[in-house]
Design a protein that fits this description.
Radius of gyration: 24 Å
CATH topology of the largest domain: Rossmann fold
Largest sheet: 6 strands, parallel
Distance between the termini: 34 Å
Oligomer: single chain
Strand order of the largest sheet: 3-2-1-4-5-6
Helix content: 25-40%
Strand content: 5-15%
Number of strands: 11
Structural class: alpha/beta
Order of helices and strands: EHEHEHEHHEHHEHHEEHHHHEHEE
CATH class of the largest domain: Alpha Beta
Number of helices: 14
Number of domains: 2
Shape: elongated
CATH superfamily of the largest domain: Crotonobetainyl-coa:carnitine coa-transferase, domain 1
Length: about 375
């Protein structure tokens, strides 16, 4: 068995990141994923480099397209539209992120194809939905800006900064995957397919969690705090004798342990720092106290001593160091997919594990 979704056919009409990430996850779980690409050039991310894998393939493309087969279909021709319809007819799931209205003009939208395929699950991904935002371009950076993420990210007020990865695309891909799996369960129970609409803007607002809830439930508009947390302290980056250290104290007991280890147990009884709300209100003063104390040792020594008493902390790793750390923990972060090293599927199943059957496909011929 290739996974829990063995026998499910996914027609993948998506490009770039959100859709391809979702369909790769479905492929990891055993689905047969057929990726539809423009003949010759293929997915835009095939040209997004450097860096490149030893095969010459863009590592961006390779990162979200294993466990798929690629077919070249030119949707600008009647023959291409017919081939696409034939693929959809045999699929259980369609995932697409064309500009809103494109598939309607081709007669390949959900309303058209579901009329004779009522069990089809059709997931459409857009930047800002199919209503008033239908004509806005769905680029991750644009949504990070317009969706508020950049307004709370950066070194200081007035310096909004994007996240270092296309995080909104990734979150949207995860939401699409959850939606498809829920729809498959519904179809198993009723035989009914359905249309799913996932958009980057709504996905980001949901993923802002405590920050968006601060506005929705409390009318508070959060701002940039650098590496600090709006509701917890100490919970940020601290300089030590050699390199930065993250300290993430989540409760008063952990703070008392921190104070004891750094040689200042009186801080836990200081009226300014005795409870978390007081520590948040006096964050700057607390940081000044800790910075002076943390100069007594390096980050690794503090991590050893603080971890021993249950205080969450750790160094800031680069990505290479992060992989090495995951490897030391036995997480096996890199796997082989048809001869191509790729990042492991993040979920471990004890009965139906993810499989890595196919390398990211070559571009379809023109």
């Amino acid at each position: 068995m290739s996974g829990p979704l063995e026998g499910i056919v996914v027609a993948d009409f998506s490009r770039v990141l959100a859709g391809p990430y979702a369909t790769m996850l479905l492929g990891d779980l055993g689905a047969e994923v057929v990726k539809v690409e423009r003949p010759g050039s293929g997915d835009d991310t095939r040209a997004w480099g450097p860096p490149y894998a030893p095969s010459g393939q863009s590592t961006y493309f390779a990162g979200v397209n294993r466990n798929k087969i690629s077919v070249g279909i030119d949707l600008a021709t009647p023959e291409g539209v017919l081939a696409a319809r034939e693929l959809i007819d045999r699929a259980d799931v369609v995932v697409e992120n064309f500009k809103v209205g494109t598939l309607e003009r081709l007669g390949l939208d959900y309303a058209s194809v579901s009329a004779h395929h009522p069990g089809l699950i059709f997931c459409t991904i857009s930047g800002f939905g199919s209503g008033e935002g239908r004509d806005l371009p769905g680029y991750d950076l644009l949504v990070q800006a317009m969706g508020g993420l950049m307004s709370i990210t950066g070194p200081a007020p007035g310096k909004p900064t994007k996240v270092g990865v296309a995080l909104v695309d990734v979150i949207t891909g995860l939401h699409a995957t959850v939606g498809v799996l829920a729809a498959l369960h519904h179809r198993d129970a009723t035989g009914e397919g359905q249309l799913l609409e996932v958009n980057l803007m709504s996905s980001l607002l949901s993923a802002l969690v405590n920050q968006s809830s601060a506005y929705a439930a409390g009318g508070v508009v959060p701002g940039i705090l650098g590496n600090a947390h709006p509701s917890i302290s100490p919970y940020e980056v601290y300089a030590t004798a050699d390199r930065p250290l993250i300290i993430a104290v989540g409760n008063d007991r952990q703070f008392a342990s921190l104070a004891e280890v750094v040689g200042a147990p009186q801080l836990a009884g200081d009226a300014r720092f005795a409870t978390n709300p007081e520590r948040v209100a006096n964050r700057v003063a607390l940081k000044e106290e800790l910075l002076g104390l943390l100069q007594a040792a390096g980050a690794d020594e503090w991590q050893r001593r603080l971890t021993a008493v249950g205080v969450p902390c750790g160094p800031i790793n680069d990505i290479g160091q992060a992989f090495a750390f995951a490897d030391r923990l036995g997480l096996a972060p890199i796997v082989d997919a048809g001869g191509t090293p790729t990042v492991a599927h993040p979920i471990r199943f004890d009965r139906t594990p993810a499989t890595y059957r196919l390398a990211p496909p070559d571009a379809p011929e023109a």
